[in-house]
Amino acid sequence: xxxxxxxxxxxxxxxxxxxxxxxxxxxxxxxxxxxxxxxxxxxxxxxxxxxxxxxxxxxxxxxxxxxxxxxxxxxxxxxxxxxxxxxxxxxxxxxxxxxxxxxxxxxxxxxxxxxxxxxxxxxxxxxxxxxxxxxxxxxxxxxxxxxxxxxxxxxxxxxxxxxxxxxxxxxxxxxxxxxxxxxxxxxxxxxxxxxxxxxxxxxxxxxxxxxxxxxxxxxxxxxxxxxxxxxxxxxxxxxxxxxxxxxxxxxxxxxxxxxxxxxxxxxxxxxxxxxxxxxxxxxxxxxxxxxxxxxxxxxxxxxx
Length: 304
Known about the structure:
- There is one protein chain.
- By secondary structure, the protein is of the alpha+beta class.
- Helix content is 21%, strand content 38%.
- Among the domains are: 111 residues, Sandwich (Immunoglobulin-like); 91 residues, Immunoglobulin-like (Sandwich).
- The strands form five sheets. The chain has a six-stranded mixed beta sheet, with no helix packed on it. Strands 12-13-16-15 form a four-stranded antiparallel beta sheet, with no helix packed on it. Strands 3-9-8 form a three-stranded antiparallel beta sheet, with no helix packed on it.
- The longest helix has 42 residues.
- 16% of the residues are buried.
């Protein structure tokens, strides 16, 4: 009896393997979809040369226990809005049973199953995963207070939103030293499932550096953005360039101004000296009577 049971089990297993080898379902293990766009979940039936005339008897796509697309014996029994076969004119002769999600949201992230029945094989269920991604906005960096005063407490705030899955904001200085441990990061998930990231870096008096960099990393650990922030913009290179240009303009103006002032001073001194010499009376002038003395004529010798 045992040998007969073993033989029967072997025959059933062999028959099952032979039938399933005629048509097999192959699905991509992972698919990537982007928020607000179409997403493709790839599955196809591969047939052997002996089963080239195989037909699809049934296809059921599910997410969890919820059926999304159901086809059975030539009829569509269920088509939820937003889901469709990848081939617009799909029918039972088409071995491509891939499904399209027309407008991808965060809720579509997860595991899906595809059940297929063909005319040449046994029913098969395969699984595939959809990973939804949404690109974060370019980070913005602000300071509190708006203008940082040296040797006082202040903070830098870096923000980015609209991304998925959860990313990370990190802080670095100009030498690429990591300051992220000194920062506080907050993650908020909005009603649409997307994430808003906020990281606050506290700056201590007498230890504030002139430049900090906020970097955004996605869920895979890849850097997407980096934003530079200069704590003292008046000392920044760009402002320094403006100062150099200003100095080049002011230098000749100051020289010319100094020359003009020097000439005016010299002219003033000259005029004062001229006035001084013009008001000094002659040595014979009678200052009391305000007249010159009369000329005394010596008498002539009568003997002459």
